[in-house]
Amino acid sequence: MKNLFLIITLVVSSTVFGQKFLHTDGQKIVDAEGNNVLLRGLGLGGWMVQEGYMLQTSGFAGPQHSIKQKIAELIGEENTEEFYEAYLANGITKRDIDSLKAWGFNSVRLPMHYNLYTLPIEEEKEGENTWLEKGFAMTDALLEWCAANEMYLILDLHAAPGGQGHDANISDYDPAKPSLWESEANQQKMIALWEKMAERYKDSPWIGAYDIINEPNWNFEGENPNGCDEMNNVPLRKLMVDITNAIRKVDKEHIIIIEGNCWGNNYNGVFPLWDDNTVISFHKYWNYNTKESIQQMLDYRETYNAPIWLGESGENSNVWFKEVLTLMETHNIGWAFWPMKKVDNIAGVTSVTKTKDYETLLDYWENEGEKPSVEFAKNALMQLAENYNMEHVTVKPGVVDAMFRQVQNDEPKAFKKHAIPGLLYATEYDMGTNGIAYQDADFINLWVSTGERSAWNKGRKMRNDGVDIQACTDGKTNGFEVFDINDGEWLLFTVSVEKTGTYNVEIRYANSGEAGLLYLEKDGKKVSQSIPLNKIGDEPVYGTVTLKNISLEVGTHQIKVVFEKGGFQLNYLDFVKQEDVEYNHF
To answer: Could you tell me the pTM of the whole model?
Structure first.
């Protein structure tokens, strides 16, 4: 009955909105009326396929099967299954998709694990395929939520039977078992799975495309284990052709997305294309955002007269996000960012809270020591699963702002409403890029291009800009403070002054080294003297200094806090209106 309801819903939505299948038209992706469609999507990484870095287990358990084994050793098989049921139920819900739509996304990329849809070959009779309803039911529900929001769902086989890549965290590859490329049975199961998918969703107009294999990452003839020096990629091309043929037996309409070797980018030997409704995908991380950085893909688009699509990107600072998406949209390239949710995350649209109990489990797994009780460990894991629910995550408005508004508009925007008289927490500076909303020496990670890694926000707390933020232990705090302040850096605050007058500004800071220097600007003009922020103690002890006689008029203004000399931590600035004091204009 659920499948019948889904089919009726999709037919009705197609009738109401006049929407039919996406398809390629030369170098563009278009809708049924031939209108260009620029896909702006998010990958639901970590839901069906766990990766260790998303759960902070990568130091001892990277791929999902290792993570699951660690959990089972701690709480037993039955409790482990209960945890995973809760994890999958909370990981993505209708509220997640509604939120993505509200933020500006028009598509979703679903990274699928094959084992939610079919059994591994080790559990099958030879040549048979057992189909599991779990994965299909999850996909049906997701498709229903996408259709209700008029969003396209792109199906991505992220963990193929046997695992398709030596980067095991991504593909859940287990070296103790035959990989996808070492097993004909695994390849035939993968082909059959895609034919089953196509048969089930062939009439669904809100299925945007079939992304048939994620990041193969395999050496067939070359020496690089991730396939970066492959010159022919014969097995990869053959498998993708076989999958396409299986899909086309039942589905003539939906777009096929292909990916090269070496994290999706090595297309040596893959061309020419074998289907006229194909999109060429590439992945882009940690490199320069110049036309030259994507020139090869632009050449593929021109040579093979097919659209290109940035199927995965992210894991960087907001500056990088703005840059890469500006580059994509300038060249009419759709995109899907990565991922939706991670534990204690700054570089994504949401963050999952890491509890102290879960920290205890991570510490045990990493360093051993006293083993937590089954009850304690299960409760910690079930709370983690609950924290994945959208109603409990922390939304990152600065990330969303960088991905959408900042691509179109360079103006700073208030992070929250700041009223004066009132208090400005240092970490609540405006949203915007480096040099516009703040100035920081390190604000982007380009290690693939430069060979040098940068942490941008060195404390990895609260926000995803170049500003360095850490936890704050002061008595009055929003929980965070700005630290690692260098000479010449600054923060900008858009404020609403509610009362004209002269103000004293109480600056709350900590300093255990040489004196810093700070001054204020208003609407681009210096309005205060430079005030020293002297050493308070050898330990992080907080104190207050006061800038006096700052003249402010009613209205919206931009207050810039300039760090003439750094070396201290800044908690907040409190603007207190003077009474019966003459204005002091600087």
So the answer is: 0.94
